[in-house]
Design goal:
13 helices, 308 residues, 0% strand, single chain, mainly alpha
Length: 308
């Protein structure tokens, strides 16, 4: 694991955060405790990897380190938002964490699902598609400006345009499975990737060879429907999210513009759940001791959520 001094610094920092949550009006300290312990545990796992010397390049491990570090940052951001009484924006970050969890899990199991792991290469190279998309939109914008006889400033230099076009062409050539929509995954739909993951039963069964039980009640598809689809209302500011800003106890039609307890406990719980699953998948991919996670959480008083 991480060096002793490094671990102590991590413990000390998150212990201060735990103390600070005892007087917050938005959620009970026990709710915050689980999320803080998972942020702490994930940070220790990431710190351990950072201190390792890579003997042999392992693409899946490198992908997992980026996605997990990215999700850890989103999780920390969600924590600070809930601490300040902004539960709905924290849900938006939780939605992004779920998307990353589905994608990392799919990249982990793509060989079992599709028979090979070429999608891992495609995921790494997918920037060639997303950056070319910016170029495509800029060209449309340029034509619209020119047709209206309005000034237009070139967004890309000629050499950059050539490279973006070549990269995009190379991606389509290297990954025929990308199809007309040019996606890195053979299963282009996030929902269908979630369903494919549930069909493997891998996460639900756990890691019996390491005496680690799985998550039998966890369903990627259920999380997609209940969280990813539902919280899109918050992401896009749609009418379905209006109720989160109505002051039901005050004057009719009054809007809450400051801190409140709305969605705080929901956001804390779902982010903690996703980071818990993340920690085991990350540790497994990177060949870390999975029992460390269980021991760490138990030692610091992790509270197993009640089944509703």
């Amino acid at each position: 694991m991480a060096k002793p001094l490094q671990k102590e610094e991590i413990y000390e920092r998150w212990e201060k955060e735990l103390e600070a949550t005892k007087d917050l009006p938005f959620a009970h300290v026990d709710k915050y405790r689980n999320l803080i312990l998972l942020l702490q545990t994930n940070e220790i796992l990431l710190a351990d990897i950072r201190g390792r010397k890579t003997k042999k390049f392992n693409q899946l491990q490198m992908i997992s380190r980026f996605i997990t570090a990215h999700s850890y940052q989103l999780g920390a951001g969600a924590y600070h938002l809930t601490k300040a009484g902004f539960g709905s924006p924290a849900l938006v970050l939780g939605r992004s964490i779920l998307e990353s969890l589905i994608d990392l899990s799919y990249l982990w199991l793509c060989k079992e699902i599709n028979g090979d792991d070429v999608e891992r290469n495609a995921w790494v190279d997918y920037y060639k598609v997303t950056r070319h998309s910016v170029l495509t939109h800029s060209e449309v914008y340029k034509k619209r400006r020119q047709s209206a006889d309005l000034p237009y400033e070139e967004l890309f230099k000629e050499k950059t345009v050539e490279k973006l076009n070549k990269d995009f062409s190379d991606f389509k050539s290297d990954y025929p499975h990308a199809g007309s929509k040019v996606n890195w995954a053979r299963i282009s739909s996030l929902l269908k990737r979630a369903q494919a993951l549930d069909d493997t039963g891998k996460l639900q069964k756990g890691f019996p060879e390491k005496n680690i039980t799985g998550f039998p009640n966890f369903s990627f598809e259920e999380e997609f429907i209940g969280i990813y689809k539902h919280t899109s209302e918050y992401v896009h500011g749609q009418s379905g999210s209006m109720e989160s800003l109505w002051d039901t106890e005050g004057n009719s039609g009054s809007i809450i513009i400051g801190a409140s307890d709305v969605n705080v406990e929901v956001a804390i719980g779902l982010v903690a759940n996703y980071l818990l699953v993340f920690s085991y998948i990350f540790a497994h991919i990177n060949r870390l001791d999975l029992t460390f996670i269980t021991d760490e959480l138990n030692r610091h008083g992790f509270i197993v959520p009640a089944q509703e």
